[in-house]
TrEMBL record:
SMART domains xrefs: IG (SM00409), IGc2 (SM00408)
MF GO annotations: laminin receptor activity
Chief site of localization: membrane
Pfam families: C2-set_2 (PF08205), Ig_3 (PF13927), V-set (PF07686)
PROSITE patterns: IG_LIKE (PS50835)
Cellular component aspect of the GO annotation: plasma membrane
Organism annotation: Amazona collaria (yellow-billed parrot)
Matching CDD domains: Ig
Subcellular location: Membrane
Superkingdom as given in the UniProt entry: Eukaryota
Key words, A-Z: Disulfide bond, Glycoprotein, Immunoglobulin domain, Membrane, Repeat, Transmembrane, Transmembrane helix
Name recorded for this polypeptide: Melanoma cell adhesion molecule
Membrane topology summary: Single-pass type I membrane protein
Domain Ig-like: 2-114, 122-225, 231-322, 329-409, 416-497
Amino acid sequence: MPKAAASSLEVSMPAVVEAEAGGTARIECSFYTAENGSSTSITWFYMDRSNRVRLCRIAGGEILEENVDYKGRLSAGEDRALSISRVTVQDARTFVCQVGEGSHVLGENQTRLHVYKVPEAPEIVASSGGASVRSSEIPEIARCVSRNGFPPPNITWHKNGEQLQPEENTVKMPSTLTRESSGLYTVSSTLFAHVTRQDRHSLYHCSVHYWLRGQRRTAESRRVNITVFYPMEHVKLQVLPSSAPVKEGDDVKLVCEADGNPEPVFSFSKRGLDNVWHDVSSLADTSSGVLSLHDVNKSSSGLYKCQALDLDDMRQLEKVVELVVNYIEGVCVKMEPSSPLREGDSVRLSCNAHSPLSLDYQWKDEKDRMVAKGNQLFLSNLTFETSRNLSCQVVAPSVPGLEQSKRVAVAVEGKPRIVSISSPLYVRQDEVVNLTCKAIAFPRPSVHWSINGTAHEYVEDQHVASNLTVRVSHDLLRAGAMCRVSNALGVSEEHIQLLDQKIPESKGVIIVAIIVCILVVAVLGSVIYFLHKKGKIPCGRAGKQDIARNTSI
């Protein structure tokens, strides 16, 4: 601590005291008197430029006189230290502690009060207009500002974490320092720098530097990226999705990409069979460079060209890609013999298709069940029951999901064959019954009955069933009914026999005998009961008396 030079009293004070604006500054003033006299007083001054201005006088631990500018902000401690509250930047000056006794000055010393205010975190704003690599002037990158600092702070610029230095005709970073009415400082800076294509990924930030308690401190802004404009150098054209081969029916996108910024204008064309390029840009989004093709087919295959036009220098680049649409076409099924099939015949089915790919053939029935593999299917000993619809499924194993199919009907023709009939049928006269007749044939037959009634007909595959509801008459019991099934190839008939449902005679005789026996027993029992009541049967009573007598003995 500095000491008073020429005096009878040694006064000790710190050379520098630091205080934050708005806080309290405490300035110590220490001295020792041999007499420890109570008549000693302290007068405080502050230096205004080269003038000494009286601040206050302290005696007996009390402030007796006070400078108007500091009124209400001064206080004295028991250790003779002076405290200044609500410190402002204007308080950054030299304070003098003078010790005296009466009018005699015993000694003095001084302290420099440093006031600091940590500046606000720097705010950075990137240039909204971007920067071009072709710019002849140094383009603006960003602006940075930090407010309310004391002493005046300064700003530095950084790119990708490294500090930038001014370079003639390449990097400039002018700064402006403004003193606010509060006495605090606002510092702002603007970064100008030439950019390259690689700077489209660069991150810029600014840092504000200030002193605090004798140390240099730093606060950083957020990182910003700017829009960099640069010419295109390459164009890429690809077919999406690219994970699997393209097949007919797919939706395909041809995506054209250029490495310039801003994006160039895209146009698309397709080379025709006449070897001439035909414009297809109407199907594309020329701003994003996407050509969309929906439900592609064989004719969608071919060469496609993307042209990218840079509007800055009117430079044009192009790229060509081939689109290959895998397909299966011309699926047909040939039947040998082709003449109508009869029961017992055999037939060979052959399936063929056209495709640039290797194909597999499968035969399936109406329920999509596998019947056979290979492009040929041989069926022998055909019957009405084996008539069915088959499909030939053609698959390209190398292209998942690429398949076509063709259906064919294997129809066995012939006159009807009755397969089920409700005969013989036991009925009672005047009873309402159902007569059933079921046949199979192709072409579809018609069913006729020899008697009148209410008929209901049902068809399932090659089968035709007819139910006839009738009332049983005497004539129907006697003659029965005839079911007649016919188509263009012939007629089949079956007779339904109706039998009267009577009780057999032998069973009737037994029943009558049983009934007669029951009646005889009943009559006999009634007669015995009647005679017993009239006393016509003494043997019963005598017997009872004899029994009683024997019991008493």
